[in-house]
Amino acid sequence: MVANITSLGRSGLYDWMVQRVTAVVLAAYILFLLGYFISTPDLTYADWSELFACTAMKIFTLMALISLSAHAWVGMWTISTDYLKNGVVRFLFQGTCGGIMFVYFVWGVQILWGL
Amino acid sequence: MGQKECEEAVSDNRPVNLDLSQFSFPLPAITSVIHRATGLILFVGVAFVLWAFQESLSGEESFNAMKSVMQGFLAKLILWGILSALLYHLVAGTKHLLMDMGIGETLEGGKLGAKITLVVSIVLILITGVWIW
């Protein structure tokens, strides 16, 4: 087996599984939010802040954020290994993606829990 | 094949046709490329989503400001774009999960799955457009 040092789980099979499990979490989160928007046509700040003040929603959102980070990493990694053949370019691209992903994650946590 | 032809067939000088415009892409290849492209779009789109998320939860005033920003044509267009990419990615991803379960793994199944992916996501994208405007 050829292990690629930049792959998330050092194994394609593990990455494949991560991609699917996180996809299911993200799909559930997105469908929940879409359902919420559709069933609350005249959304007010009170409704919206009450929703995210709830611990269950915070847990669900944090789960979605973690899933997004892993899912996007595997996806961007796959794209970079397929289309970027130059080692330096690929490494820089992956580094940038990882950096952006980390910023997204911390930013999301910050919004969720505030100061 | 004789020795000479064999050597010629594997020779490094053989013509390599990698002009993508010369290829005929089957529909499943096209839906797969769109799946990747929408993933890339969403990766960038998350920045807009997080920004809107932040503004909407920073207090009543900024929530209402965000709400009026979202009434603008450009904001609606960006929102529709992100939601379209999201819906396509979701539908194509669901097809992936079904295929992982062994549903539609044949050549015919793959072609049909690609058609269904396109039709379902186009319908959802149009409905979303109507919902936004």
**Secondary structure: number of strands of chain B:** 0
Query: Kindly, what is the distance between the CA atoms of the first and last residues of chain B, rounded to a whole number of angstroms?
Result: 66 Å
Looking at how many chains there are and whether they match, the oligomeric state comes to heterodimer
Q: Give the low-pLDDT segments of chain A.
A: none
* Helix-strand sequence of chain A: HHHH
Return the string of H and E elements of chain B: HHHHH
Describe this structure in words.
- The complex is a heterodimer of chains A (115) and B (133).
- With 115 residues, chain A is mainly alpha-helical.
- Chain A is 81% helix and 0% strand.
- Chain A has 4 helices and no strands.
- In chain A, helix 1 (12-39) crosses helix 3 (55-83) and helix 3 packs antiparallel against helix 4 (87-113).
- The longest helix of chain A is centred in the middle third of the chain and has 29 residues, at 55-83.
- Chain A is elongated and about 50 Å long.
- The mean pLDDT of chain B is 89.
- Chain B is mostly helical and 133 residues long.
- Chain B has helices at residues 3-9, 27-56, 60-69, 73-100, 107-132.
- The termini of chain B are far apart.
- Chain B is elongated and about 80 Å long.
- In chain B, helix 2 (27-56) packs across helix 4 (73-100), helix 2 runs parallel beside helix 5 (107-132) and helix 4 packs antiparallel against helix 5 (107-132).
- Classes of the chains: A mainly alpha (115), B mainly alpha (133).
- The A-B interface holds A 20, 23-24, 27, 30, 38, 43, 45, 48-49, 52, 68, 72, 75-76, 78-79, 97, 100, 104, 107-108, 111 and B 36, 39-40, 42-43, 46-47, 50, 53-54, 56-57, 59-60, 63-64, 67, 86, 90, 93-94, 96-97, 100, 131.
Topology (SSEs and partners):
The complex is a heterodimer of chains A (115) and B (133).
Chain A lengths: L11 H28 L5 H9 L1 H29 L3 H27 L2
Helix pairs in contact in A: 1-3, 3-4
Chain B lengths: L2 H7 L17 H30 L3 H10 L3 H28 L6 H26 L1
Helix pairs in contact in B: 2-4, 2-5, 4-5
